[in-house]
UniProtKB/TrEMBL annotation:
This is Uncharacterized protein. InterPro entries: Choice_anch_Q_dom, Pectin_lyas_fold, Pectin_lyase_fold/virulence. Gene3D superfamilies: Single-stranded right-handed beta-helix, Pectin lyase-like (2.160.20.10).
Amino acid sequence: MGKEGPGTNLVQGNPLFVNYDRLEYTGDFALMKGSPAIDKGKDLGYNSDFMNKPVPMGGAPDIGAIEYDPVSSVTERNKSETLIYSSNGTIIINNYDQHKQAVIYNMLGMMIRRINLVGGKNYINMTEKQVCIVGLENGVRAIIR
């Protein structure tokens, strides 16, 4: 007979982790629908999770830092979609669609830079932090600040 205690025998099977798209890092252990870790945590007195969402959202807290939210549940991102976002003055383009170029415009519509893209992640350091528009050749646009 095994000893019961914190961290033992809490969840059996695959916990169904997924990357939470709104975070900048991978492997953050958000829970997918149907995860056996949903409502299996213990009440430790926390009122909110890592994303500042209320805890618990179901009958009991979930195991992990990100509480499962059935209303805005995490969906797996299609790996063929190109993502454009910014972090600390750097524009990041996850070029899954194999775009050739990105063009960056200021808010007046003047071109600031034209960048040749590679497949995968592209990091574009911006010397000035400003709101800009990033355009790809297929018409995709993103406003970045």
